[in-house]
Structures are given as C-alpha cells and as structure tokens.
Amino acid sequence: MKSIYLSEIIHELAAYSEKVKEADLQEMLAAIHKADIIFVAGAGRSGFVARAFANRLMHLGFHVYFVGEPTTTCIEENDLLILLSGSGNTASLVSMAEKAKSLKAHLATITIFPENKIGALADTIIALPGTSMKSQDGSQLTSIQMSGSLFEQLAWLVCDTLVLMLMNDTKQTSEDLFKRHANLE
Amino acid sequence: MKSIYLSEIIHELAAYSEKVKEADLQEMLAAIHKADIIFVAGAGRSGFVARAFANRLMHLGFHVYFVGEPTTTCIEENDLLILLSGSGNTASLVSMAEKAKSLKAHLATITIFPENKIGALADTIIALPGTSMKSQDGSQLTSIQMSGSLFEQLAWLVCDTLVLMLMNDTKQTSEDLFKRHANLE
Amino acid sequence: MKSIYLSEIIHELAAYSEKVKEADLQEMLAAIHKADIIFVAGAGRSGFVARAFANRLMHLGFHVYFVGEPTTTCIEENDLLILLSGSGNTASLVSMAEKAKSLKAHLATITIFPENKIGALADTIIALPGTSMKSQDGSQLTSIQMSGSLFEQLAWLVCDTLVLMLMNDTKQTSEDLFKRHANLE
Amino acid sequence: MKSIYLSEIIHELAAYSEKVKEADLQEMLAAIHKADIIFVAGAGRSGFVARAFANRLMHLGFHVYFVGEPTTTCIEENDLLILLSGSGNTASLVSMAEKAKSLKAHLATITIFPENKIGALADTIIALPGTSMKSQDGSQLTSIQMSGSLFEQLAWLVCDTLVLMLMNDTKQTSEDLFKRHANLE
C-alpha cells in the first residue's frame, strides 16, 4: 500500500511548480555564470536546502562558499550572493543582503515574497508560489503541510533544476560531477 | 512558461514514490514513538535532509540530536539511531551503525539498498526505489538526474510525510510546532 | 629546541589572564546555575570557542544548545544566552542579544568591550583584557598576534576555567563528564 | 582578585609547551607550503580547534577546506590532510587517514600518541605532550583538567604558532589577513 500523505505532498508540488517561471531560472543561471565567486546562505531548513545547492555548485566546478563555514572568505564586487528565504525577512539574511549590496555584489534570492526586505534589495529573484496564489484552473492553492515545508521542498527541486540546466550549459555529465565529490566523509 | 526540467523531476518523483511502502513508514513511526532519545545522521546532501528531519522532530517535541553537533550526547540502549544513506555503505555511517548495535540501541535507516552494510544491521528500514526497479506499468524506472539526487529529494519528502503522520499521531497543529521554532537565527 | 613564538604566546596569556576577574567568573556561574536552558553563540573563531564550551556544558549535564544547530529550540524567559564576541558589535550576535532581552531571557557575554552594543544589553559580563590595558607592572599590554587571536585563546581558557569551577560546584569528576561524551563520531 | 584555576591552566600550558619541538613545527610548515590544497579535520572539541586553524589558513591565502563542509571537494595526490586527534585512534579520522594515504596525499597529524593508528600512517607529526611525560626538572607532568582539555588548548596555541610562522614566511601582516576575513556573518 502506498502512502496517501506522500501522494498528497507530490500532488501539491505538481500544482505549485506550475507557477515557477522558466524566465526566473534563466536569470539566475546568467547571474551564476557571470559571478567570480558564489556565496550561498539560508537559515533553518532553508539553510539545509542552500547547503545542498552549494554542494552541487562545487560539483559543477564553480567557486562557491556557504556563508558561515570555517573557510568562507569575504565577498567582493563581482561576486554573487544567493539567499534562500521563504519570508524574505529573516534578520540575519537581511543583514547579509545589505552588506552585499553595499559592496556592489550581485544579490539573488529564492523567496515566496519578492516584495519583502530581501527581495526589495535583490537584482535577481526566483519567486516561488505561496498559498495566497491560485492554481492553473482558478482554484486556490492550498497545502496540508506547515507553511514553510512546501517552500523548502520546492526550493530543493528548483535548485536541482538549476543544476540540470547548468550541467547542460557546461556540457558536463554526472561522471564529471562525481569526480569532484568529497572522498573524505 | 514553466520549466520542463522541473516538471520532469516531479514526474520522476511521482513514479518513484509509488514504490514507497506505507508499512515501512508505520514501522519507522513506531520506532520513533518508542525511543527515549532519537539520533539522526547522514553524510553529504543526505546529511542536509537528515538535519531538516531532526529539526522537525525537535519542533514536534521529541528529544532529538543530529550526530556531530556540539551538544549531542551519547547514545544508549533505549535510544534510536536513524541513518540516511542511499548506498547503505558510507564508511562513517557504517561505524555509527555498528556502535549503535553494540550498545543495543535501535537502528533504523532510509536507503535504496537494504541488502548493504547499514541495512544488514538495521532493525527498521524504509526502502526507497532506485533506477533498477520497474514502475507500476512494468516499464523500467529511469532518471534524467544524478543517481543521488532522486534519493535525496524523495528522502526529504518521505521525512516530511513522517512529520505529517507524527503531527496526526500526537494531535499537534502547525501552530504547536511553530512554538518550538528557533527564535535566535 | 622549543618554539619561541609558542613561548611568547603563553607569556602573553599569562600577562593578560591576570586581568580576568574572579568575580566576573562567579557571576557567570550563578547565571548558568539559575538558567532553565542555556544557549551559546559566537561568530567565526569565537564561534568555535563557543561550541567547545557548549560541548562541555553538555558533558556537565546542563540543558544547552549552540544557536544555529538543527535541533536548537526557542529561547524563553528563564533561559540564558551567552554570547562570545571580542568586539561586542557583531551584527548577527547583536540581533540575538536584542531578541533575548525582548523575551526577558538573561543575557551574558564574554567580550573585550563591555561598553559596546552587546555589553550594553548584557546582565552578566566577563570582561577580557585588550591591548589598550596596562599590565601588573604598569607597562602597556601588547601582542605579537592578530588582535582577535589573543581574545579567542583567552576565551577558550576562561571557558575551561568555568568548566573546572562547575565540576567543583556539582561535585563531578572527569569520569562523570566522560559518561555523557558523544559515542557516535 | 584573579582566578586560581585560570592561573593553574596557564601554568600547565607553560610546562607542557616546553615539550613541543620547533623541528616538528618546521616540518608541518614545509608540508603546508608544498600542498596544492590543504584539508583539515578533527572530531569533537579538537574539531573546533581544527576549524579555527582552517579559518586562519584561509586568511593567509591558502586553498583550504574543512572536511565535511558543503563545499569541500575531493582530495588528490599533491594535497595535504591535517588531522587533529589527541588519541590518534578516532574511528572517522582513521578512515580519512587511510583514504588519504591510498590516494598518495600527504598525511600530517597533531597528536599525543604518534604510535597510534593515525600517527602510524602519517608523513608529518607534531607530537604534543601527555600526562605520561616528565617536565624539564624531571618531575611528572600532571593536570587538574580532563585529559582532553590540555590537548585541545595546546593544539589551539600550536596552530596559532604555525599561523605566526606562516605570516613570517609569506611576509604578511595582520592587515593582509583581515582583507580575506569573512564579511557576511
């Protein structure tokens, strides 16, 4: 017997993902390709999604850091900061956004609320749908889950979508990425 | 315009998720409810999924640690160790599995390969499908993604499914969980 | 042959440590004993000192979290937040200090500059000497090291001093502490 | 009034540090200068010392990773792995040592027991004194602290000594190092 809750989660993801715009993803790709160094950050569960994305960017051969790690250096003018924040208002991330902009770095974010603090500062935004949106057929988007959960799930899938697009752009296979995979864990 | 890659990922998740057994999830729930303390571990990207799950178990009010954090204590006889490992052979996790069993703790795992080292030691297993399986209609399961990616995505969704089931079991709402959410980040 | 640099570092620590006040340490002990839950935080290298301290507080049997870990819960009124910050002005830590005070939690800090933002909010302060101070014999305190290094070293030793005092207070031996030591790493 | 426990800790560090050999430090410097990429690892409190060292190596301009971070890549033949382990037998670190040697990377360690598993595999060793040693005047070295504490303290100071030597070697000032300091925390 299969899980009804799991089916429902995937059903929700299918409905919400319809609202993710290919054009947003393309803009993020352009920002990634243009950056000297990429910094990725997020708090709580979004932070774990952000770390998983930083990991794959390393596998892809990009020069990338997760903010807060022991060997993370300083951000400068031609670098990119990608912030994952559902609310777009997380205090520690807003500070980072302000700092990055003050140094003329490029600021990108994945968020439900582009109108909030981080989005208002950002150069590039991937907007993810929230429960205030309507689905394809005009009905209200809903969720049986905690509000943050769907954002985190969809953010993980959107980041993995960006990885597939970047593999395609750079003509790299899974084998190419595995060559850079950590071998000391 | 919507993203073709994102649609394909969700299409894959829908097909693979059919193979996840409700009975496996129920056994994991029983192990979680029975444990004095829950320890969760994983390496690499599976480790980020594991941290996100540990976070929600804390929100639910369970006594839980992620292995390797500064305040994680020792595991003992009536505790539970949950290991997320696609391969079931990750060296550092196999060591943990052996240690936990030697102390008579309960060992659970989420893995693609129950027949490998960790699964062979485990008391409770949630088996996730791999590309060697056939789908509902008899066709081979395939993926456009790196082999690990689908495991990590599905593991995240399965853990969130367990969270929904645990909310139901303990009669807690999202508001109950939010009361325990970190407020210093 | 012994190392001249290492001898000089220890010589500096001996001179600076004369300025650490026993009364400050006693006040911190009182705050620790009184707290329901202890939260510890720090950024950069001070953050690693803070994690090492949180680890020993766990060994001692206190209910303790390092801020930012996956299983760290919310701070409340009768809890204690200990911030390690040389400058006393680190943005992310100032936010935590403000949040903790707004919830009427007890705020403690280990810092060189009690007059700065975190110190100004704190209920309990261990003031560590900086290079602006004079030593016992009236000469200026100096250092061959980067300004932060001496703070971090002395903070580590001061935290280990607190651990010895807490072992004494709670009549626990090394063996008692080792029983709580992580056994899954 | 000054702290008696703190004075005693510094007294112990002074006695133990006499046993650290300048020649060991010089060999570690040579290994660091020769390496393409430096990987640093440690478990528990030694792991926090190791992270603090990795942080300064980044400040110095070296290409360095802490093992287990999201953006840490794979180790290869001309790289260096530095393991901090008091006992020299920590399971997860022994696995890393074996893996590094199998790939012909250079293995270095800071340990009390060079004769144990990690030391037996290592190309370069900084041996720190333990309580089984005699001090300068022929009396037994002792400690009022938990056995690991003195190792961790001395390891932190030895790493900061290496930093001073590396600043000297590379003719860099504190200002040069601060330019690479994280500005997003």
Automatic annotation (TrEMBL), chains A, B, C, D:
E.C. designation(s): 5.3.1.27
GO biological process: what's one of them? carbohydrate derivative metabolic process
Q: Which domain of life is it from?
A: Bacteria
Which InterPro entries does this one have?
A: PHI/rmpB (IPR017552), SIS_dom (IPR001347), SIS_dom_sf (IPR046348)
* Keyword annotations of the record: Isomerase
Per the database record, which ranges form the SIS domain? 28-172
Q: Tell me one Pfam family matched here.
A: SIS
Uppermost EC category: isomerase
Instruction: Provide the GO MF annotations for this entry.
Output: 6-phospho-3-hexuloisomerase activity; carbohydrate derivative binding
Family per record: Belongs to the SIS family. PHI subfamily.
Q: Which NCBIfam families match?
A: RuMP_HxlB
Q: What is this protein called?
A: 6-phospho 3-hexuloisomerase
